[in-house]
Design goal:
- The structure is a homodimer.
- The first copy, chain A, is an alpha/beta fold and about 350 residues long.
- Chain A folds into three domains: about 5-60, 434 Repressor (Amino-terminal Domain); about 75-170 and about 305-315, Rossmann fold (3-Layer(aba) Sandwich), CATH 3.40.50; about 170-300, Response regulator (Rossmann fold, 3-Layer(aba) Sandwich), CATH 3.40.50.2300.
- Helix content of chain A is about 45%, strand content about 15%.
- Chain A is built from 13 helices and eleven strands.
- Chain A has helices spanning about 15-25, 25-35, 45-55, 65-70, 85-100, 115-130, 145-150, 170-185, 200-215, 230-240, 255-270, 285-290, 300-315, and strands at about 75-80, 105-110, 130-135, 155, 165, 190-195, 225, 250-255, 280, 295-300, 330-335.
- In chain A, the strands form three sheets. In chain A, strands 2-1-3-4-5 form a five-stranded parallel sheet, with helices on both faces. A four-stranded parallel sheet of chain A has the order 7-6-8-9, sandwiched between helices. In chain A, strands 10-11 form a two-stranded antiparallel sheet.
- The longest helix of chain A is centred in the first third of the chain and has 16 residues, at about 85-100.
- The relative contact order of chain A is 0.11.
- At the A-B interface, helix 4, helix 5, strand 2, helix 6 and helix 11 of A face helix 4, helix 5, strand 2, helix 6 and helix 11 of B.
- The structure holds a DNA duplex (16 and 16 nucleotides).
- Chains A, B: It comes from Dictyobacter formicarum.
- Chains A, B: Keywords: DNA-binding, Transcription, Transcription regulation.
DNA sequence: CTGAAAGCGCTTACAG
DNA sequence: CTGAAAGCGCTTACAG
């Protein structure tokens, strides 16, 4: 039995000193080997002795000590508006997977119901020693926060001069969707927009409007509604659209979540999708596949998004040359919620 | 200008020493005040000086140093099978909210696609200095893992002698659901069970079977299917049930996610819910409200769950007397997916 | 290739 | 009520 196994009762957590003693080397050698910096600095025999001693003791380096000394935590924070939206759960998963490959881990910070997100981010700094930030918040942070996050954060699907951004090709995604509907013969196309006044949503609306114009389809004010990201709100908005005297034959939604409300309103009004009404979403989240019939939507590829996000953030953190990413390509996914308009 | 503002270029992060210097007190006093332990130990004037100095410098205690010294990180890990299931997103939110009140924060660990979750948990120990664990994994951990987690973890909706558990009253929830269907006149009730062989699902099945027995309804082997938590798998299983010669008039699902597959199969077979088929879920997740018509389900109250979970875990960590919680009450939520069977 | 040592920024007992 | 000091467990420059 080694000396370190003499502790009675409470199993004390082994430290690098315990490992060093058992392996017959210095504590520094243990640190070098476990930190993967032993090449050419610690003899092969010592390395083996250290590794097996570590294994026997169940040693794992103390993260707080490591972070304190090195100034690196390898923790990335992903800030999203709401995890209850399955789209953001998928974004988290994609970022998590990509980060793991690079030796980082991701914590999830939800802004929902939070007034003071400056405080929240401060807390995260304190609690987790977050090294880098991915803000998928659709809202450009305020000036003091930008100062705090300088050279540590990137913005996804939003733009500011103050911070590197990963852009999504909302433009083409939305345009493809509009073309799709127009090709199906729709001209009475309403837009159910997201309530938050973010650039990503303004962009959707601009493309909606321009595409109508290009096809000489009149833009109607009564076909424009905005809704919060709740089923109740989107239901109400859709109900209002569908009970217009001259109701739309298609409703384009800014998000799959909003489309779910449209399905409910259609059901309440005994309208069949896609026979009586075409509906489209945005995101290609789980929601789009749960809906029956499945939702035609614009896919945001969360795996690629995660990889590019992490690559961009790490380049910022390491002050390397920032890689250039073209806006992420979004593709139209045609499913059962859209159909050619029937002659009546 | 204070002495600490003389650094040129890189804004160095202020430390307690900087605050102490500016406030004209000792570093220890700063620690006491910021740590909320100043009562009766630091004079009122000093406290004020410290607080304003901290504010002016934008000081926040270094978490790594704090954790290293005190051995406390105030981080709780929540381990779930899959965040893409909106139910677990809601569980996270509930736990997060409850933990925040107690000064803890919650990181989310997803087991999906992970083979070796022992390693994952080890990693989390290393990376985040996790103090306490909530395992909502529906699988009792292996022996070495139990050793690692002793006195640090609780299990939710699962039972083992090795670990405190928070139980859900699956029994009554499932029983209420079955009563509901039987009262509606259903006798051909199939059970679409979850594939994982966990106690929580075995329990659902036991209650299903017993309730049939109590009502002299024959138990049929061809009405029993299991499905993984994917839409494709549950669709296939439901399709198989619905194309039986003597197809069920109701399908009871172990989870809302599984019910979504049933909706798809019903749609494919031109069966109308609830007219031709009643469907029920379990969890009352976002999924149950997205489905059209909305799903009759058993509600697991994630807010209460979060509060009890955190309360139980903290009592374990603080080695206080463990509070006793009765199994969490689940309530039947009747919505549009169930109806009285029609006379044919 | 190896060892001895400094020090990251705190918390906390201890002496006044 | 205040101050001086030890020490948490590492990483990393430095001297051999």
């Amino acid at each position: 039995m080694g000396e370190e196994s003499t502790d009675i009762g409470q199993r004390s957590v082994p430290t690098s000193v315990d490992v060093a003693r058992r392996a017959g080397v210095s504590q520094a050698a243990v640190s070098l080997v476990l930190g993967g910096k032993a090449a050419g600095r610690v003899g092969k025999k010592s390395q083996e002795a250290i590794l097996s001693a570590a294994r026997e003791l169940g040693y794992a380096p103390n993260s707080a000590a490591r972070t304190l000394r090195s100034g690196r935590s390898h923790v990335i924070a992903l800030v999203v508006p709401d995890v209850n939206n399955p789209f953001f759960a998928a974004v988290f998963e994609g970022a998590e997977r990509a980060a793991r490959k690079e030796g980082y881990s991701v914590i999830l910070i939800t802004l929902k119901d939070i007034q003071d997100w400056q405080q929240l981010i401060n807390e995260a700094f304190t609690t987790y020693a977050v090294e880098g930030w991915v803000l998928y918040t659709m809202r450009v942070p305020t000036a003091p926060l930008q100062e705090l996050l300088r050279d540590k954060a990137i913005l996804v699907d939003g733009f500011t001069d103050e911070m590197p951004s990963l852009l999504l090709d909302i433009q083409h995604g939305m345009s493809d969707m509009m073309q799709h509907l127009i090709q199906l013969g729709h001209t009475r196309i309403a837009h159910l927009a997201a309530a938050p006044d973010d650039e990503t949503f303004r962009l959707r609306h601009r493309v909606y409007r321009e595409t109508l114009l290009q096809h000489n389809i009149p833009y109607r004010d009564d076909y424009q509604l905005r809704s919060a990201f709740t089923l109740e709100a989107s239901y109400q908005a859709a109900y209002q659209l569908l009970t217009l005297a001259d109701a739309p034959s298609a409703i384009v939604c800014d998000s799959d979540m909003l489309a779910a409300g449209v399905y409910k309103a259609a059901y309440a009004l005994h309208l069949s999708i896609p026979r009586d009404l075409s509906v489209t979403g945005f995101d290609d989240s789980l929601v789009s596949r749960i809906l029956v019939p499945e939702l035609t939507t614009v896919a945001i590829p969360t795996d690629t998004l995660g990889e590019q996000t992490i690559a961009l953030l790490l380049s910022v953190l390491e002050k390397k040359q920032t890689p250039h990413f073209d806006p992420l390509l979004l593709s139209l996914v045609v499913r059962g919620s859209t159909a050619a308009i029937e002659d009546k």
